[in-house]
């Protein structure tokens, strides 16, 4: 049995308890895939990540990500949280404000911004593409969105490593009042190879965020995600493709998770090259070791 450094983090969280939890095993050398999957299943968190030495000089570290059910090639909140863990443990130092993550999705840079004792980390996400654009009368969607009051943009299926149906609601109050039909969402996800439905709406007047979102996962486990960096990046790519970005200067803030007892804030930025950076703050909640 080996003792390994272990962190539990709250990602996209302005304060502990508001974001999406993540477990990180910092000294993962020697763990095989079966052991990593067993640890991820045991933590019962949305994802658990395992950190290794990089295999290429361009990378700052290497990561593998596991949900309780399977290995995940890429996800936003585990990427941002893992970078925070690397910095806290002193495993790597940013080069000109950038860490480079090595993983199943390739080499992905993360921008580290430290100002006024406030650190934000944002990952450049894999390029997302529009798979199809449909309309509210699409028979595949009717059992999911038939009773929803929709916004101006049409529903679309986006692919950013994981596929999501993105659906605009008429307003924030409408979005927050949704009661999803989980059987319908699961059927849609299975038939279209998607994670589920990512519903969004423009923020109500006077809010500190620009968009409110809800992520209904119907692929495998059925749950509402507290905060998803990758799904928000897919949505940002969709909005950019329709010249419909909120906020200013191609930057905006997202509120997610209130309906499941969280209050995450994500910061999105589309750079001059058209790449989406998805990030926010991370809080360390537990520091210790795991014996496995």
Can you tell me about this structure?
By secondary structure, the chain is α+β, with helices and mostly antiparallel strands. Helix content is 21%, strand content 38%. It has six helices and 18 strands. The protein has helices spanning 33-43, 76-89, 139-145, 172-176, 182-192, 229-241; strands spanning 3-11, 20-25, 48-52, 61-66, 71-72, 98-103, 106-115, 118-124, 129-133, 156-159, 163-168, 196-202, 211-217, 223-225, 251-256, 264-270, 276-280, 282-291. A hairpin with a 2-residue loop joins strand 7 (106-115) and strand 8 (118-124). The longest helix has 14 residues, at 76-89. The termini are close together.
Q: Count of DSSP E strands?
A: 18
Measure the end-to-end span: 5 Å
Bin the helical content.
10-25%
Shape: globular
Q: H/E element string?
A: EEHEEEHEEEEHEEHHEEEHEEEE
Q: What radius of gyration results from the CA coordinates? A: 18 Å
Strand-residue proportion: 35-45%
Estimated structural class: alpha+beta
Mean pLDDT score: 97
């Amino acid at each position: 049995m080996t003792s390994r450094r272990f962190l539990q983090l709250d990602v996209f969280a302005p304060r502990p308890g508001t974001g999406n939890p993540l477990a990180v095993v910092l000294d993962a050398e020697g763990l095989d895939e079966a052991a990593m999957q067993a640890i991820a299943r045991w933590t019962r968190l949305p994802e658990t990540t395992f950190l290794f030495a990089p295999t290429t000089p361009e990378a700052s570290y290497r990561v593998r990500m596991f949900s309780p059910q399977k290995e995940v090639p890429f996800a936003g909140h585990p990427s941002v949280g893992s970078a925070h863990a690397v910095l806290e443990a002193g495993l790597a130092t940013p080069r000109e404000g950038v860490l480079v993550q090595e993983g199943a999705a390739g080499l992905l840079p993360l921008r580290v911004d430290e100002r006024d004792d406030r650190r934000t980390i944002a990952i450049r996400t894999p390029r997302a593409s529009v798979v199809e654009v449909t309309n509210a009368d699409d028979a595949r969607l009717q059992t999911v969105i038939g009773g929803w009051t929709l916004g101006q943009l049409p529903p679309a299926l986006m692919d950013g490593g994981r596929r999501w149906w993105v659906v605009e609601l008429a307003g924030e109050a409408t979005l927050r009042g949704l009661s999803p039909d989980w059987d319908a969402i699961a059927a849609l996800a299975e038939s279209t190879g998607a994670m589920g439905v990512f519903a969004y709406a423009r923020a109500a007047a006077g809010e500190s965020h620009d968009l409110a979102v809800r992520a209904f996962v119907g692929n495998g486990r059925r749950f509402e995600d507290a905060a998803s960096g990758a799904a928000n990046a897919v949505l940002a790519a969709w909005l950019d493709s329709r010249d419909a970005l909120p906020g200013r200067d191609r930057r905006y803030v997202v509120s997610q998770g209130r309906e499941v007892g969280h209050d995450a804030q994500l910061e999105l930025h589309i750079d001059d090259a058209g790449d989406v950076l998805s990030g926010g703050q991370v809080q360390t909640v537990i520091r210790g070791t795991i014996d496995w």
